[in-house]
Amino acid sequence: MVADKPWRHAMEMTRRHTVGAACATAAMALARTALGGWEPSERYPDPAIKSLDPSFNRYRLFNASIERLATGMRWCEGPAWFGDARCLIWSDIPNNALMRWDEETGAVSIYRKPSNHANGNTRDRQGRLISCEHETRRITRTEYDGSITVLMDMFEGKRLNSPNDVSVKSDDSIWFSDPPFGIRTNYQGNIAPSELPSNIYRLDPRTGRATVVEGTLDLPNGVEFSPDESKCYIEDSGPNPRPIYAYDVVDNGTRLINKRVLIAAEPNGTPDGFRVDMDGNLWCGWGMGNAELDGVKVFNPEGRPIGFIALPERCANLAFGGRKRNRLFMTASHSLYSLYVNTRGAKNA
């Protein structure tokens, strides 16, 4: 992991560059106050945290409840935790902004605007921000000094669609999905024709070489690895119900084989982004079909549902963070939520 000083310095530089967004931030604060309609439970244990299987009880903390950290956004996605800066960065895609929440103060601010309608975000193994941008149809890296490096925007001479979700393996390779969501409307990007199929790519940032590791899915979305990186999980947003597939990772981590359905969502269950904890459980953003399905659904490594975290909004994505990687951050439609849990995110989560 990168030392504290370089990234903290880059964060402060970016914050100084966005002083002009103070009015927008103030308006957002007013919106957060005005939206209302939801209050955290005053009871322990929180009734919104439900065990679907007794094995989930070990991951619950009886005196931890769901917290709403921010609200007033249009569509929250792509949370990424920065422990050295003690903050969370996430996307508000239609507002064309990357947002920042500070752990120490609880302050919410704009980290970068415009963000090129960024969607998924993560960190590479050197601690730099990796972002999927809809508007520019590219994968970028934010360097320690705040400058932006374009890692990939084309494949075999054709433009990418709209990179969506991203994960970085321990060999520094960047794996991302490229469905056309960001070029279908002008709300989360710019309307444009697709030039490529909806693929999953593996990019080696050292050589710049990219390969298609999965090209058979309709609308590939969430991408994640098991803690030991022997398996890759990919969600397909095309079918109804949506499946999450499992693959074996072979050839020194460069190829996927043995595709099979790990999780078959109930009709309208609509999984989206997800992360894996140290025991290999999948914590999946869930919902959209009806209010009772909105939240986070947890599956064990065999794909059996074991837990559910009910939220008042559909959860699109999540990340583990906090000092001990035991705080679950959930980006859900208009809001950012968190919950302390009795596990930790895997090192690649």
What can you see in these coordinates?
With 349 residues, the protein is mainly β. The chain has a single domain, classed as TolB, C-terminal domain (Neuraminidase, 6 Propeller). Helix content is 8%, strand content 40%. The strands form seven sheets. It has a five-stranded antiparallel beta sheet with strand order 1-24-23-22-21, with no helix packed on it. The longest helix has 14 residues, at 4-17. It starts with a helix and ends in a 9-residue tail after the last strand. 48% of the residues are buried. Mean pLDDT is 91; it is low at 16-35.
Observed structural traits:
five-stranded antiparallel beta sheet, four-stranded antiparallel beta sheet
Number of helices: 2
Radius of gyration: 19 Å
Summing up helix and strand content along with how strands pair, one would put the structural category as: mainly beta
Give the neighbour order of strands across the main sheet.
Answer: 1-24-23-22-21
Please state roughly what percent of the residues sit in beta strands, choosing from under 5%, 5-15%, 15-25%, 25-35%, 35-45% or over 45%. 35-45%
Shape: globular
Tell me, what is the CATH class?
A: Mainly Beta
Total discrete domains: 1
First-last Cα distance: 14 Å
Give the CATH architecture: 6 Propeller
CATH topology: Neuraminidase
Q: How is the main sheet built?
A: 5 strands, antiparallel
- Unreliable segments (pLDDT under 50, ≥5 consecutive)? 16-35
Mean pLDDT, all residues: 91
Q: What is the succession of H and E elements?
A: HHEEEEEEEEEEEEEEEEEEEEEEEEEEE
Percent of residues in helices comes to: under 10%
- How many strand elements? 27
CATH superfamily: TolB, C-terminal domain
